[in-house]
DNA sequence: TTATAAATATGACCGTGGTCAATATTTATA
DNA sequence: TATAAATATTGACCACGGTCATATTTATAA
């Protein structure tokens, strides 16, 4: 019973997303205004909200696709042999996520997929990232007493913690990568620490 | 060179906060409108923003004070003897933090103290919580190969992860406390796991 | 007491995300 | 090809957080 998705619809949607990319690349994520997007795309404001439930939905698509690009690269890597590799591999993604306070906030807000039925693009990338990490963990010299999925979720939790503290005035004297190293060593190789 | 804080100022501020409490207790946090607060407090809208930089600042005060009450209770507890105790102790606080999606979002947004000079009330509670947890960890039968502060920060990271996943449509089949148990056992007692 | 300066309060106004009934366009049907 | 139904677009309008020049109150000094 699904039919009739007019090509006009696709075109409008693509135009909106393209305009958004353009604005973001010149002014940054936080500076994007719906008003400006529709103006650049030459459609009415209401059209925007006919295509996206809200502004965040558009940001999710755009930020999610950025994250996916990073995950593509990560999937092409050979499994990290130690925690330093882990951190080096994850660095570009974490750098993007902290590139703007606004970006980090949007990611945080949607990492839990809200209470919606639909899983949003960003929540999907989180899910995907856990699977990538779990794969690495199964293949590498890491503790096996805990399920790889749990370890992977833990790494994600630590990464978020590090990024959050990076924005924090109290805690940002310890560089983000240094802190990540402390966490990962303790989390992944408990027997080697001390 | 600081002087002249009129008692009128304190009165107005107190009135605003009291009105906010009143509204929140009857309609919830997410339903609070600045308009309604000033109306209840019988002041002009501009007055609100003369007392608080923005709406979030008020929410921070209110939510922060709630969290502080929980921390007061935690400080009165005897140190937890195992991870189950940990989870039981933390449960009321985590319950509050997830009582509303809006509350959790505000907390997340300010846990990192933003980029401001001033450390906000919520960031302070996070700092305080880490110290409480670190104290427990030093006193109890937990791994000593990692600094207590790092362990404590880890617990905080896991708690946030559990709460975020609790809101998530993909991951909420595993109850929040169950998940926390998995994390904490692996994090605090790596030798006992498996 | 009155003049003056500093602190506080006011409310009209603005920016921006989001809504919705009306209109226009496309597709399906006769 | 005409007409009806479904789908997409429009833009005036609203909600709500936040601003700021002006007015009012309070503290200080003569």
Overview of the structural elements:
- Chains A, B: Residues 33-52 bind DNA.
- Chains A, B: Keywords: DNA-binding, Transcription, Transcription regulation.
- Chains A, B: InterPro entries: Homeodomain-like_sf (IPR009057), HTH-type_TetR-like_transc_reg (IPR050109), HTH_TetR (IPR001647).
- 2 copies of one chain form a homodimer.
- The first copy, chain A, is mainly α.
- Chain A folds into 2 domains: 1-52, Orthogonal Bundle (Arc Repressor Mutant, subunit A), CATH 1.10.10; 55-188, Tetracycline Repressor, domain 2.
- The first copy, chain A, has 9 helices and no strands.
- Chain A has helices at 7-27, 34-41, 45-51, 55-76, 83-97, 101-111, 121-139, 148-166, 176-188.
- The radius of gyration of chain A is 19 Å and the shape is elongated.
- Chain A starts with 6 loop residues before the first helix and ends in a 6-residue tail after the last helix.
- The mean pLDDT of chain A is 91.
- At the A-B interface, α6, α8 and α9 of A face α6, α8 and α9 of B.
- Chain A binds a DNA duplex (30 and 30 nucleotides) through residues 3-6, 8-9, 12, 33-35, 43-51, 54-55.
């Amino acid at each position: 019973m699904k039919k009739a998705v007019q090509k006009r619809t696709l075109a409008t949607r693509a135009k909106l997303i393209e305009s958004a990319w353009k604005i973001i690349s010149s002014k940054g994520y936080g500076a994007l205004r719906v008003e400006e997007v529709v103006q650049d795309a030459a459609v009415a404001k209401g059209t925007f909200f006919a295509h996206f439930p809200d502004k965040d939905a558009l940001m999710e698509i755009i930020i999610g696709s950025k994250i996916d690009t990073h995950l593509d690269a990560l999937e092409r890597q050979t499994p990290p042999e130690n925690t330093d590799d882990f951190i080096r591999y994850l660095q570009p993604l974490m750098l993007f996520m902290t590139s703007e306070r606004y970006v980090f906030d949007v990611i945080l807000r949607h990492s839990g997929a809200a209470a919606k039925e639909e899983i949003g693009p960003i929540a999907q990338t989180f899910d995907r990232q856990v699977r990538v990490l779990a794969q690495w963990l199964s293949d590498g010299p890491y503790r096996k007493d805990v399920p790889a999925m749990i370890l992977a979720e833990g790494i994600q939790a630590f990464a978020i913690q590090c990024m959050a503290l990076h924005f924090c005035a109290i805690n940002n004297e310890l560089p983000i990568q240094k802190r990540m190293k402390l966490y990962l060593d303790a989390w992944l190789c408990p027997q080697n620490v001390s």
